[in-house]
Amino acid sequence: MTISKEQIIKYFKSGIKVKKDFKIGIEHEKFLFNSINNKRIDYPKVKEMFSALNEFGWKPIKEGENIVSLNKGGKNITLEPGNQIELSGEKLNNIHEACSESYDYLFELKQVTKKLNISIVSTGFDPISKLDEIPNNPKQRYELMTKDMPLGGELSLDMMYRTCGTQLNIDYSSEEDFFKKFRIVNSIVPVSIALFANSSIVEKKRSNYLSYRSKVWQNTSRGGLPKLFFENLNFEKYADFIIDFPILFIQDKKNYLPGNKYTFKDFMNGKINEIKNRLPTEIDLSLHLSTIFTENRLKKYIELRSMDTCGWDCLCAGPAFFIGMLYGNLEEVYNLISSWDKDKIINAYLDAPQKGFNTQLMGKDLFYWASTLLEISRKGLDNRDIFNKSGKNETSFLNHLQKVIDNRTTNADHMINKFSKSEDLKDLYDK
User: Fold this and answer.
1) How far is CA 134 from CA 80, 126, 243, 325, in A?
2) pLDDT tens digits, residue range 141-187?
3) pTM
4) Which residues fall within 8 angstroms of residue 336, CB to CB, at 6 or more apart?
5) Helices 330-337 and 366-384 meet at what angle, rounded to 10?
6) Beta-carbon contacts of residue 253 (< 8 Å; ≥ 6 apart)
7) What domains can be seen in the chain, in order of their start residue?
C-alpha cells in the first residue's frame, strides 16, 4: 500500500492506546574501548563480541554477509556508526521492569566484554578519541550518512561517531494527549540537558561544556528544536512537517540510495527517478521518520532524545523522571509549562549545554525548574503506586537525581573532577 497524507495521519492515530496499555521503551547507547590501548574497538572486534553474546540467546541479524545487530525476543542490540552499540528494549509496563531489563543486558554484556578486553564507557561524548581515529563499519546506510550529513550541519559526523544518548519511548491515549505530552517534552528539553549532562571532556580536555553531546546535536543536520513543536501541533501538522522534510536515504530492495535532493513529498508524487518513480510504502515512511533527528519525534509513539548516556547510577533515573510526569502527573506539569514562551525555551535550549543549571528560563534558572519538575515527577510515581517484590515503588529510581539536586552537582561535574588528562580511561570505565 502506497502512502498519502491521510494514511500518514492514520499511521499516527494507530499508535493511540488506552492508558492501561501504556508501555515504556528504553534505548541506551554505549562506547566500547579496547582495554589494552584505550582505542575505540573496530568491526572485527564487534563481530567477536556479537558472536560471544550468542551464549546468552542473542541471535545475529545480517546485512548481506555482515552481522549488524542482534535480537532476543523483543530486544535488539544495534550497531552505531563508530561501533557504539545500542540496546533497544522491549515495551514494558513500568520502570521496575525496564530497569531489570537494562540490568540483565549489562550483566550479559560485561561477561563478554571482560573476556575480550573491551571496556564500556557510558558518557554522552567520547572523551578521548579524535574523529579521524574512530573505525567505521560496513552498514550501508552509514556510508551515505557520512557523505551527506555534513552538508546540513557542521558537527554531523561528531554526532554519528562520537555521541551516545539515552532515549525513552512513551505512548499517548488521544491526539490531545499526544499534543500535551509533546509540548511538555519539548518545553523541558533545556532542563533535561542540564540535569542529565554527562559529556564535559572532549579529546582529553575540558570542553567548557557540560553536555558537549547536546552542543553537537544542535549543530547536526536534520536536528534541533523546531518552533513548530511549540504550536498547536496535531497529527496533520506533524504529517505536513515530515512530508516537506528532505529524505536522507531510500531503501531500494537491499540497497540504500542517497535521497537528500528529494523531500518525502517528491517520493509521494512519484518523482524519484532512481527508483523508477515508485511510490512510498509504510516501510519507507517508517524509515523516513527514523531519520528525523530532532530532540523529540513522533512515530507510533513519542521518542524523547535529549538525555546524555550515563552509567548505572542514573540509567533508570531518566526514564523514571519522565514517566512520573507524563504517565503519573500530566496535568500538573502541563499547567506549569503551558505559559512558557517558545523563544525563551529555545534560547535556554541553546544555552543549556554550556551553562547547565545556570541557564535562565522564564526568569528562573534551570536548577529551580529541575527541582520543581523532580517533585512533580515524584508525586506522579507515587500516583502510579507500582511496587516491586521488595515493596519499593518507582520513586526509588529518582534517588540519583535527588542527589544531583541536593549537591547541585551533575555527572558532568563528576567527570571533570575525576578525569585524568592521560589516556588512562579507568576512571570513566563503567564499574
Assistant:
1) 12, 10, 34, 38
2) 999 999 999 999 999 999 999 999 999 999 999 999 999 999 999 99
3) 0.97
4) 372, 373, 376
5) 160
6) none
7) 5-245+292-418 (3.30.590.20)
